[in-house]
Design brief:
Elements (H helix, E strand, L loop, with lengths): L6 H21 L2 H5 L16 H23 L6 H5 L2 H14 L5 H21 L2 H4 L13 H9 L10 H4 L3 H8 L1
Length: about 180
């Protein structure tokens, strides 16, 4: 797929996303972030996540995006792209990313999320506009550029453009109120 926006807009929207997550981190007590079964919005009706689980989920997609950009720049396709293209693969990534971070303490999860989102912003920020719109260095079924590949990972519907948090917490104020 071709990117639906330019690199500067993607960075701006990602910053809005990260600021919204930071605001929740600042507002919530540790117990509120680790309390199970507080987040029920998302693609899968059986999910019952804590805020910490949600951070693991968000981190998963951002980490895969960084890895995929690095592979792209080396002329390779990250296998995660094909995995995400199937329904079964998407479910595996969704739950696997949460499960793989389940044993992290809250402090460790917060650090990992912070490091991953910083690395993503830096990685995209370091790209040139030409790289952003460069064609895939591998065979694709439809025209694909780097920005489009990034969107395939970060912006899968029903997510708003470069915003993943609102899929799971559509109203931060209501979410906080529900915890208290």
């Amino acid at each position: 797929m071709k990117s639906t926006t330019d690199r500067a807009t993607a960075l701006r929207l990602l910053q809005v996303e990260h600021d919204a997550v930071y605001e929740l981190i600042e507002e919530l007590a540790d117990e509120e972030m680790t309390r199970p079964n507080t987040i029920r919005y998302g693609l899968y009706s059986d999910q019952r996540l804590s805020f910490k689980d949600l951070l693991a989920h968000l981190t998963t997609y951002e980490a895969y995006t960084v890895e995929s950009i690095e592979e792209w720049l080396k002329g390779r396709k990250n296998p995660i792209i094909d995995t995400l293209a199937s329904d079964e693969g998407s479910v595996q990534i969704h739950y696997g990313g949460i499960e793989s971070r389940r044993e992290l303490s809250l402090a460790e999860m917060l650090r990992e999320w912070d490091n991953t989102q910083s690395k993503l912003m830096q990685t995209i920020g370091d790209l040139s506009d030409e790289a952003w719109s460069s064609p895939a260095p591998y065979q694709t079924s439809e025209p694909t550029d780097l920005g489009g590949m990034i969107e395939e990972i970060l912006v899968q519907p029903p997510r708003p453009l470069y915003r993943h948090l609102p899929v799971h917490i559509p109203d931060a104020t209501a979410y906080i109120r529900s915890l208290r």
